[in-house]
């Protein structure tokens, strides 16, 4: 169960994404998965390269579209553990609508976002999660004038069933979170504060360490209470890590499609028969 392959990541030394890659590989191995049971689907950006760095099925898709492809993969083969991944620009900018609908749709996939508060691949422009006032000497020298999006608030508003956040400096916590997200039956978001050491000189490892609160240290925190989760996220401006919310009673999308359980597309001979296609299409209208 080795989820490492021989491809050397071309991330900058010190990039937070290395830790996320390691945590995913460890979580998959400790969850007892085999490489052929897993598909990693990624979007565009530095972090989007991750699908090529994990020994599993992989698909490096187009900008912001990892979730539609991941949902298609899951529908075609429900036996796969499907992980979608990408960065904050990819997932919370161009892909935000896909994220919100995936959260409310509740298909059984795990979405891992590496949030570095900028667009790293294109040299540090502000992203949807850049703070108001954030400065980048080249692209935003006078400071960002827009309000930052708080992904955890969006996720809770969209009715997500599993919400967690991690930090690249804490691989142990991140691994446990990803294992829980994979085990959760339904859509799960693991949003990771993953510093860009090259283009973001504001949200550094030290800055996150000073500003992050670990949810387990909050007395009386109840991860099944959505209102408390929202209040905590708002109080900490999103900077809180751990499993923030989990609702295990929500039914996954796959369990609600009549007939789906008997007819996974992957088990059919090609070309698909007209009867099968007609029956399948009826399940979706
Ligand atoms: Fe990581 Fe930033 Fe380098 Fe991209 S530019 S690989 S996000 S450190």
Automatic annotation (TrEMBL):
Q: What is this protein called?
A: 2-oxoacid ferredoxin oxidoreductase
Name all Thiamine pyrophosphate enzyme TPP-binding domain ranges.
44-192
Organism name: Tumebacillus flagellatus
Q: Report a single Gene Ontology molecular function.
A: metal ion binding
The entry's keywords? Iron, Iron-sulfur, Magnesium, Metal-binding, Oxidoreductase, Thiamine pyrophosphate
Q: Name one Pfam family in it.
A: PFO_beta_C
Q: Tell me yes or no: is Iron-sulfur among this UniProt entry's keywords.
A: yes
CDD domains noted in UniProt: TPP_OGFOR (cd03375)
Database matches in SUPFAM superfamilies? Thiamin diphosphate-binding fold (THDP-binding)
One GO BP annotation of this record: cellular respiration
Q: Does the keyword rRNA-binding apply?
A: no
**Cofactor field:** thiamine diphosphate; Mg(2+); [4Fe-4S] cluster
* NCBIfam families from the UniProt entry: PorB_KorB
Domain Pyruvate ferredoxin oxidoreductase beta subunit C-terminal as annotated: residue spans: 196-262
């Amino acid at each position: 169960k080795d989820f490492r392959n021989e491809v050397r990541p071309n991330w900058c030394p010190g990039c937070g994404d290395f830790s996320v890659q390691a945590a995913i590989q460890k979580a998959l191995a400790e969850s007892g998965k085999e490489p052929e049971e897993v598909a990693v689907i990624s979007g565009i950006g530095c972090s989007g390269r991750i699908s090529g760095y994990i020994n599993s099925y992989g698909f490096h898709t187009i900008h912001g579209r990892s979730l539609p492809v991941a949902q298609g993969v899951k529908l075609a083969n429900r036996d796969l553990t499907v992980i979608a991944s990408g960065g904050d620009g990819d997932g919370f900018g161009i892909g935000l609508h896909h994220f919100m609908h995936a959260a409310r749709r509740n298909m059984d996939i795990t979405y891992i976002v590496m949030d570095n508060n900028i667009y790293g691949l294109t040299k540090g422009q502000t992203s949807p999660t850049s703070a108001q006032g954030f400065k980048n000497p080249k692209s935003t020298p006078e400071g960002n004038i827009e309000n930052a999006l708080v992904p955890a608030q969006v996720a809770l508003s969209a009715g997500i069933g599993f919400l967690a956040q991690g930090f690249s400096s804490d691989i142990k916590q991140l691994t446990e979170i990803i294992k829980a997200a994979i085990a959760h039956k339904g859509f799960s978001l693991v949003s990771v504060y993953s510093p860009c050491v090259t283009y973001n000189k504001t949200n550094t490892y030290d800055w996150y360490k000073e500003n992050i609160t670990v949810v387990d240290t909050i007395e009386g925190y109840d991860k099944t209470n959505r209102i408390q989760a929202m209040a905590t996220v708002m109080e900490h401006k999103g900077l809180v890590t751990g499993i923030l919310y989990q609702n295990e009673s929500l039914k996954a999308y796959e369990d609600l499609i009549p007939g789906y359980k008997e007819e996974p597309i992957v088990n059919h001979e090609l070309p698909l028969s007209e009867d099968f296609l007609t029956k399948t299409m009826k399940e979706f209208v």
